[in-house]
Amino acid sequence: ATPEEVEESLCLRMEDAIDGLSHIEESKCQAQEGSASLNIKLNKSADIGRMLVDIQTQINAINDFPSEIETPVVQELDWNERVVDVAITANTSLPDLKAYAEDVRKRMKVDAGLQLVSLHNFSDHQLRVELRESSLRQLGLTVSDVASKLARQNIKLPSGNIETRDKNLLIRFDERKITPETLGQTIISSSSAGSVIRLTDIATITDRFKLDENRIQFNGQPAAILTISKNKADDALRVKSVVENFVQQEQARAPDGITLTMTNDLSSVLWDRLTMMVRNGWQGILLVFGVMWLFFSLRYSFWVAAGLPVAFLGSIMLMSLLGLSINIISLVALLMAIGIMMDDAIVISESIAAHLDRGMAVDDAVLAGVKKVLPGVVSSYLTTICIFGSLLFLEGQMGSVLKVIPQSAHCESIEISSPVASLNCT
Questions:
Q1: Does 207 share its domain with 231?
Q2: Which residues belong to the signal peptide in this entry (predicted)?
């Protein structure tokens, strides 16, 4: 079926079926040749499990679907994030380029284990048939006659199923002509003498795309773009590394004239932030150590500076236990929390040093020093909680993004940093 027929027979019926359901924020149905996909966005108050059941019930209740369609499937979509693109360029025709890109896409999934790979740059594939008017007149045929014969000999239909004890096998009749050569062999007319007229005898068949203007060029050459994404459980840096190894191996065995290039590497942003944080962390440790050494002893300077990596590693561990990922937003929160930790450590250390200078024993100086500044440290901690904690109550898309800041800063870094700062000088 054409996309227009799919939209009329599937999309409109499904959209009407779910129209009365609550908690639906947005719905969009995409019609393609032979298939339809209805994407539904729910609001935050929706119960996902209940909505899946309700939507499945409404879809199953549609009684005027075409008889030959497969059973509709309703499932929850995972959250995906783009990681990197692979541009495939070649001095060849666009159909051949798409065929090669589709082959690479399949190998990415099977060989490299990358499940979220999509192909861009191509509209729907089609075979254009240009009939010769003189040939039609000679055979007494019309355009409608030829179209009807092509439709009858170019079908794909489910033909039932075979149930066994272990599995259920679906049977499908597939007689589609998907290349100019096979379509050209379609019999249009035959005579009593046994001669046949095939489509290639009365028409010119070209292999092309529905929208030729949908093209992408990479470095001045036509290109196919493979987009690799990840779900919540995947590591962006690991996915990028797998893609990099696959591209190197594929380029080594690719035919002459075909080039695979990684581009739009969004994981590099995360890597740059991690590198910057590690570099700035070591610089911060050295600077803190040097500044503390100007005013305190070597012992104080060492323990205050040592609190930074201890608190940071503890934060990363707790983030992993709580299911929070390392991303740009959480890294910013960690950097802010580390700054607060260093302030607390310096204040507590200075108070302990002051009591030691008065001749107090080490244990007594630690207890007295911490007790003296405890109200100020706790108040600064509570103030930080109040300021950043308000982000947890933001709603909408912005709230879902910014809530990572208080989660990372409060639940991880600050909660660990304050006890560490108190213990550093013991």
A1: no
A2: none
Residues in the chain: 426
65: in domain: no
pTM, full prediction: 0.54
Tokens representing residue 85 in the block: 């693109």
Q: Where in the sequence is the domain holding 174, given as residue range(s)?
A: 126-211
In a domain, 328, yes or no: yes
Question: Residue 356 belongs to a domain with what CATH number?
Answer: 1.20.1640.10
**Same domain? 395 vs 278:** yes
- Sequential pLDDT tens for the chain (426 residues): 567 778 888 888 898 888 888 888 888 888 876 788 888 888 877 888 888 899 999 998 888 888 778 888 888 876 678 888 998 888 877 778 888 888 999 888 888 888 888 887 666 667 778 888 888 888 888 888 888 877 777 766 566 667 776 666 666 656 666 677 787 788 888 776 777 888 888 888 877 666 554 567 788 788 888 999 887 777 888 888 899 999 999 898 888 888 899 888 888 877 887 787 778 778 877 887 888 788 777 877 787 777 777 777 777 777 777 777 777 777 777 777 777 777 777 788 788 888 888 888 888 888 888 888 888 888 877 887 787 777 777 776 677 777 777 777 665 545 444 444 444 444
Look at residue 342 and tell me if it is in a domain. Answer: yes
Q: What are phi and psi of 57, to 5 degrees?
A: -65, -45
Q: Are 183 and 107 in contact (CB under 8 A)?
A: no
- Reference 381, options 422, 350, 331; nearest CA is 422
Q: Which two tokens stand for residue 3?
A: 């996309």
For position 103, which CATH number holds? 3.30.70.1320
Our count of domains for the chain comes to 4
Is position 83 within any domain?
Answer: yes
Q: Give the separation between CA 206 and CA 47, rounded to whole angstroms.
A: 50
Q: Which of 36, 2, 45 is nearest to 17 (CA)?
A: 36
222 plus 116 within the same structural domain: yes
Query: Cα separations (Å) of 379 from 266, 344, 354?
Result: 39, 11, 21
Residue in 169, 170, 144, 145 with CA at minimum distance from that of residue 157: 170
Q: Angle of helix 236-253 relative to helix 267-295, nearest 10 degrees?
A: 130
Residues 305, 287 contacting (CB under 8 angstroms): no
